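task queued by scheduler; priority normal; single chain, no ligands, no partner chains; default sampling; output format set to structure tokens
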Amino acid sequence: MSSRRARRCVAVWWSLIAPAAAESAQNWRQVHLQPDPPQARSLAALSAPAAEALSQSGERVSVFESTTGGLINAALLAAPGASSFTSCGAVTYTSSRSVAVLGPEAAQPLGEPLDSQGHRCRPQSGKEYVASKQERARLLARQKRHEVGATWCVCENGACGPTFPYADVDAGFTAIFVSGPVERGVLVRSVATYSREENMWAFTNAALDLLVECMAEARAQGLPAALPPAAVLETREDRFGGVEVHVRDSAAAQVSGFWTELRAALEAWRLAGKRGIWLRLPLACHTLVSAAISAGFAYHHATPQYVLLTRWLPASPSPLPRYGFTLIGVGGVVLNSRDEVLMVQEAISPTARTQGAWKIPGGLADPGEDFAETAAREVREECGLETELEGVVSLRHSHGRRFGQGDVYVVTRLRATSDALEIDRAELQDARWMSRKEIHARRETPDDRGKSLDGKVSMANWEMIDNALSGRLVDAVAVPDSKGVGTMLYKAVAP
């Protein structure tokens, strides 16, 4: 790594760790293990104080561990009645391999951010390496506590040895953080004489002791076990016997709460005779998609801001309307002061056969654009011309085009306000004015079937141009629709 990149990585590293420094000083303490390693003992005996406290309080705990290898969970599960106070947990020893368990965000190795060039920035020293483990344990404990809906979450992350990636780390250590009504962290440092397994037992003991300590402090302060979970669903019944469901952004880290609330809501809607359910998940809640699919929902459509899923509750086939399945393109037969037609060659054509073919300018309509606006914008962007609409002249409807969608192509006739062309070379290979006679001479013939159309005009383009020059125009008239929103009505001009 270059010295400049190393300095940049250090700057990125400390910009992430520094905001947590004050909190770390308050919530973290450090302990050193004694030279004599503890003896492995009964798992149930190891967790007895924590299990008793949890049983008496009716609270639940979730554990996500690393160097302890599952011993914390195993100790809790060995206690009688464990099913009443344990929640889900996991062993995620290597961050890069835990995506399927933790999700991409939680699996991202904290302490190894990306710099501005997209390179991975690793901690530069053992001190930074240990600090990254503390930060990871703290954030993961908080996140997983909310996701699983537990009262307490214990997270542990460190290194058991006997080898370490930094010269200034010569013994095992772990960062243990408990998140709940009380939050505390402990950095446990071992001694070089401890074996890997001895570290695992010692770290497990420290984690369970910290959990008991936090629970005792919460009781002493009279803190509630947990605040009532906030509702994550906002609902509105529609006019068709269905329900529109919006999920609050705050639900992103509440997978368990979302799943529980959604299942209960579905049962209530089924009993109430509701039919179509429209579930809208904002981008922040993308982690909830899997839970929604498991609840019987199916994709409807997605935008950069949200994904919409639907479920039809009755046993009958779903009649819910599909999302838009037709693309709209608009072309312009542009005439100049000499009644010549603007013809263009695309820089890159959709197919090899049409590369170099002459065609009318045009493109896909943007949301909210009328036909005339699309045609005028495309001509302006590609050729630098301002135009005025003379009318709509034809419409082509085809199926199975891009993404399997239908395709409607509307042809307009436009009048250019000048003849000067400013060609966008990123979009076009060339553009020029052509007479009707020249276009006719370049048109595709039956002998050209399957051959390159370089320098020619396809039969479809010729038909559209010929119709635009000699056919009857369709007027565009602005009228309000039934909802009071302005819309365009296209009607034939009287003969």
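post-processing summary
- The CA atoms of residues 110 and 136 lie 6 Å apart.
- The chain has three domains: 3-220, 233-312, 326-492.
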